[in-house]
Amino acid sequence: MNRPAVPFVALAVGCLLPFLFAAAAGAAPAAAAVLLAVASNTVLADVVTSVAGAKFQVRALAPTGTDPHTFQPTPATIRLLAQARVIFFNGAGLEEWWDKTIRSVKEPAVPVIELSQGLATLGISGADHAGRDPHVWLDPISVKTYADKIRDALSGVDGGNAGFYAERARAYRTALDGLDGWIRSEVQKIPPARRKLVTFHSAFQYFARRYGFAVEGFVVASPGKEPSARALAELARRIEQEKIPAVFAEADFNPKLLAAFARDAGVKVVTDLYDGSLSDGPPADTYINLMRHNVTQMVNALK
Ligand SMILES: [Zn+2]
């Protein structure tokens, strides 16, 4: 229950079976042949697994239900990084703990891939720090670029399976296109004037831009910051003015503040969007399921 070990987020069953089989047959453990890939959080670990299949064991550093911005690395985090053959993080300022953590790994002579690199990022309006918005992955079209980078990195480490990774990446891109089409048709169920988002932290700009929502506000510009009374009053005024039907909180963060606020402002509150962490099991146990769940919640609350 209390074990500090980072969970086997994405250890595919298909990866476990040959291992058991080999052990039963008395052969050399197949696990030795499975390479370790590490991703900074569970969402990225799922995307990596989608490309890697069972050729890599993929582990996440920040476990499910933790905030990927402010995750506190443990000695287990460092051990995992030291064993990895390839390391993935989002970048664009998401992982506030990243630089220090990577520096503490002895001889990180393996590729460290910043998945958001090269993609245009947006600023965070109203932020009191000059930050960029790191939540690029909430636009599935950008995740196609993540998949390409993952394919290239895995092929660089394990060139013998380059064709396998290319095929997996191609299939995943097709799945992301399917997700994109599904979201577009779902969003049609919301009257255009009601396609407005107010969320706990500012995570949905890329999603909103792709699917024609207006981001009307957020309670905190970035996690760990307390909103001022003035900012909350301003947001309440805006919700009334813009006739915002509902506000959304992310499951990774304490929803109490937004719930109390929504009660005062007289709007519906939805408290289980996911952005920087998967859930253990449904509804957001993969990146694609996370997106489908969020969109379903939005459509139900706003239509
Ligand atoms: Zn976030």
Mean pLDDT: 87
**What's the CATH H-level superfamily name of the largest domain?**
Nitrogenase molybdenum iron protein domain
Q: What is the terminal separation in angstroms?
A: 41 Å
* CATH architectural designation of the largest domain: 3-Layer(aba) Sandwich
Strand order, main sheet: write it out. Answer: 2-1-3-4
Strand content: 15-25%
Structural class: alpha/beta
Helix content: 40-55%
**Any ligands, ions or cofactors bound here, and which?**
zinc ion
| Total helical elements | 10
In N-to-C order, the SSE pattern is HEHEHEHEEEHHEHEHEHEH
Number of strands: 10
Q: Briefly, what CATH class of the largest domain?
A: Alpha Beta
Task: Tally the structural domains.
Answer: 2
